[in-house]
Write a structure and sequence with these properties.
single chain; globular; disordered C terminus; 270 residues; 32% helix; six-stranded antiparallel β-sheet; 16 strands; alpha/beta
Length: 270
């Protein structure tokens, strides 16, 4: 319940009480809850992998604005860049998606106004979920790892798996005498380390350096120049620019790389 409580504290008392009561009445829901979606003039929706649960409470525009202000510590302007990306990351690594009217100037998003929806995605680490894959990734003979690409359809746990792989490779695995490697993470969307005020909210290991909110192409170059990583990891490979960045990093000082991509309609996007 602790991870959900970190999200509930952003809601006004009537909504907090309603959500807390619903969760207390259903212990399975506490474990299975993935998202809390609120939309102006519509019921609150609690989403699990198996079902959607509707709560009969219509959110007003002013309530959404109050929630957003609380998430931004009463300084929305200070979080403007993140809001323009369509999400905020809060303490605990939880990510809140934001939609509304997009303001574009010279082809660049400069603001989001008239906020109409918030999607609270509950972050849960699954420690050691990658153990069965690690033995396929680690090159024990050369005390390194193999170049690795994780592929699956959306929503199947690629990022969760990638995060735990990074944690193990960074911190080391005592039972197989793997001492750990210096890892550089390009966390373009803030979903791997889930930085909050510069501090990773997720455990990404003791030898890991993170760059967040930067393109993979620029982030890889910066990490190679500044931190000399032995391993580079990033999420959501999906463009030609990403592929070119991988090729450049492969020829750099980094020894090995780990990425994930998604598969759609039988085709791999990589």
């Amino acid at each position: 319940m602790k991870d959900i409580e970190e999200i509930l504290r952003y809601f006004q008392k009537p909504i907090y009480t309603l959500l807390k009561s619903t969760l207390i009445q259903n212990e399975n829901l506490q474990q299975d809850l993935q998202e809390i979606r609120i939309r102006v003039g519509r019921p609150i929706l609690l989403k699990t992998q198996k079902a959607d649960i509707l709560i009969d409470y219509e959110i007003s525009t002013s309530e959404i604005l109050q929630i957003l202000e609380k998430m931004c510590e009463n300084s929305i302007y200070a979080y403007k860049n993140q809001i323009c990306e369509g999400f905020l990351t809060v303490r605990g690594g939880h990510r809140i998606g934001i939609t509304g009217t997009v303001v574009v100037e010279e082809g660049k998003i400069i603001n989001l106004k008239y906020i109409t929806s918030l999607n609270f995605r509950i972050a849960r680490e699954v420690l050691n979920c990658s153990r069965h894959l690690l033995y396929e990734i680690i090159d024990k003979e050369n005390k390194s790892i193999y170049n690795t690409l994780i592929v699956s359809p959306p929503g199947k746990g690629k990022t969760t798996m990638l995060r735990d792989i990074i944690r193990n490779i960074s911190s080391g695995i005592q039972e197989i005498a793997f001492k750990g490697m210096t890892c550089g993470v390009v966390d373009e969307r803030g979903e791997i380390a889930a930085m909050y005020k510069g501090v990773p909210q997720n455990d990404v290991g003791i030898r890991t350096d993170v760059l967040e909110n930067i393109s993979k192409a620029k982030g890889m170059k910066m990490l190679i120049r500044s931190m000399a990583p032995e391993v580079i990891a990033c999420d959501e490979i999906g463009s030609e620019e990403d592929v070119q960045a991988i090729r450049r990093s492969h020829n750099s000082r980094s020894k090995r790389n780990i990425y994930d991509a998604w598969k759609d309609n039988g085709r791999y996007q990589k």
